[in-house]
Write a structure and sequence with these properties.
The protein is of the alpha+beta class and about 170 residues long. The chain has one domain: Gcn5-related N-acetyltransferase (GNAT) (Aminopeptidase, 3-Layer(aba) Sandwich), CATH 3.40.630. Helix content is about 35%, strand content about 35%. A 7-stranded mixed beta sheet has the order 1-2-3-4-5-7-6, with helices on both faces. α1 crosses α3. The model has no long low-confidence stretch (mean pLDDT about 95).
Length: about 170
């Protein structure tokens, strides 16, 4: 059974914990421990997460698989987007799932939740940035109708990496 619930300021410590676990599982094999530590300490610091949770242009959701916290979704609109995409765009900034909970349809479920939010707000497109080396995620997003429309730099600690910007037009 899959369930999704909004994440609130009171959930900040749980959000921090799931952020560390899922990010580490996803990227530790391809990045130095120093760069991973530097990035996670900055991005998932409790004060940073609380600031993001308090931003009215961002929303976080926890996803559960059989009542167990399995991952989370973060979407941004307006000035909370990490790139200038306009007021008719919704960004999926984070979509992470614990390794043991993958291959159960959670990614598609969260992606559809983001599309549902975008459509309810009359957005024209939904977009995300995905690391160029994350081939599984790129293939998944392509299968879900996203196309590459650009790229931007992403810093993992002191290492500059390239994210592909992928967009899906909503009708």
């Amino acid at each position: 059974m899959i369930n999704i619930q909004p994440c609130t300021l009171e959930d900040s410590r749980q959000l921090q914990e799931i952020s560390y676990v899922t990010f580490n599982e996803t990227f530790k094999q391809q990045n130095s421990p120093e760069n991973m530590k530097a990035y996670m300490e900055r991005a998932f610091h409790l004060n940073q997460l609380e600031k993001e949770l308090a931003n009215i242009s961002s929303q976080f959701f926890f996803v559960y698989l059989n009542h167990e916290l399995a991952g989370y979704l973060k979407v941004n609109t307006k000035d909370a987007q990490t790139e200038e995409m306009g007021d008719e765009a919704l960004e999926i900034e984070r979509i992470y799932i614990k390794r043991e909970c993958q291959k159960h349809g959670l990614g598609k479920y969260m992606l559809n939740k983001a599309i549902e939010i975008a459509k309810a707000r009359d957005m024209k497109k939904i977009w995300l940035g995905v690391w160029e080396k994350n081939e599984n995620a790129i293939a998944f997003y392509q299968k879900m109708g996203f196309v590459q429309t650009g790229e931007h730099s992403f810093y993992m600690g002191d290492e500059e990496q390239r994210d592909l910007i992928m967009t899906k037009t909503l009708i």
